[in-house]
Amino acid sequence: MPAPRRTGVTRRALLGASALVALLAACGEPRPSALQFRARPYWEPALKVATGALEVVRTFELNIRELGERSQTPDQFAAAAEARFETIGSLGQALVPLDPPPSATVAHGHLVTAVDALVEIIPTVRAYDELEEPDRLVHVITLQKRARTAIGDFAQAIGPGRTRDWLLRTIGELGAFHIEALRVPMLAVLVGPFADEAEARARIGQRLPVIRMSRVYRRWVEAGRYPTPNEADAAAREWLLAGFATRIEDVVDLAFTLNDVQSPVAGRWTERAWLARTEFDITGLAASGQGELVIAIARNGTVEAFGSDGQSRWSRNLRIPLSRAAVSNDGALMAAHGFDLLLLDTFGEPIWRSPARPDNQLLEDVVFAPDSGWLVARSTNASGVGHVFAFDRSGQRWGPTRAYISATDVVLNPHTGTVAVASSNQGENQIVLITPAGNLDQRFGVDGQLHRVLFTQSGEHTIAVTDRSSQIFDSSSGDLVGQIGYPSSAAARMPAADTIVLAGPSGLGAFSITGTEVWQIPGLAVERLLVTDAYVIAQTSERVLAVIRADGTRLGQLVTSSEIRAVTAAPGANLLLTANAERAIEAWQLPEIEPAAG
Length: 598
Description:
Helices cover 25% and strands 35% of the residues. By secondary structure, the chain is of the alpha+beta class. Strands 4-34-33-32 form a four-stranded antiparallel β-sheet, with no helix packed on it.
């Protein structure tokens, strides 16, 4: 990046002002008072650029470590780098207008070097994506090292003081490592040719976890890389038998070796607490309340459990198609379900001898009772008409619900175990309350088509969430006691309070059960909504989640390494978990909320 030329502009202005003063004096006019020029501020914006660059360097170093430890693939590393492009561009834009005073010339030169190195990462990563040249990633690592060194030189050039000490200490906290890259010849099996990516996806389907058209071999999709001709030939034969044309081409991979000299100091909340990889495409994710048990499932019936540190605890193939999973709050039980339902203990051992199939419809939801002793399951079909069933360790407890009840959503009263069912059937919208024993307890009509039902913390009030409003009823009498006029498509209650969080066309908002607005973020488009004890998490795009504190202030946003396929939270631990397109689970530990002063 060329050094900014603001100094030249300032000199031209000074010369022009001097000429104007001389001209006025020559014409007999009184000499004006001396013109006052105020220098642009430099150090404050320069330090913002430096700290921003250091944050980018920190992110890159964490990803480089994962690359060296083989917990991140080169493509994942490139995707993580692309997530920082906007931030890097902002640093470049903030640097351009800076006009360093003479005392800052040396420091500014180091700052320019640091930002230049980060900016050069952008075309380097894009070239890697477009040309599929792995050596480009080695250059990214070199550029990151150059930026880190330049930020250290900038800190030294500032001179003694708290700012320099803080920058140098922060750089030291990044740790130190050496990484070496070795070129490894491989054989790529390519499948094709296809007219475009849409045709490739339609024909290949679920045979590959990620489908990407080759940039080098146009119209072909890379199906795998193999170290020996025999392995490549065997893989190609399998594709040929499936009816695909194949070709085998020489490619080069990079093998990285990491030598960790000094581990980094504990990172920020936007850095993963842990990452775990699976051998299957993850379609469902669930966790216990404190995150000590995390369950990932695949459509083909595979279930894998992970502990609070991300280490695999066990894996099973249940041999039934699965769509979702649920875990009890204490982690003692888990349910895996599709058209069938299977109950497992914390070690993955079946509680029942065989799966239950209550009504040949897809089981959409499973909700555990507060004591984890039993659960309710909600089924649905293409018309949105389903039933509710209850199960315990012995098998089916009661159900199905009557034909007049169309189960759109289901929730359990946290104290009494009463089951609330949201029902919208042929224009009749109602909430149906069912006792734990399976008997009708209460039913009351609702204005608008239902899509969620919630209980308050005490269970004394039932909240019916429709596309037009949220209506609050007394759970005992069925009387309408309040209303929140905020149209929504997603809703949740904060676990530790009676704050109702609603997401819809107006944005994201939180309300008390009396209808009072607690806070609102207008215009925020939400695809999925989750809550923990202290946070609201809103997925806003395929890779981005906005994290908001319970008081409505933004903590920030997370950018995952690839497309999110499933997401869940451990509410009591304020732990967010995402499953991505690269068959990996990423865990994000949200920070503890500091108590208010006084």
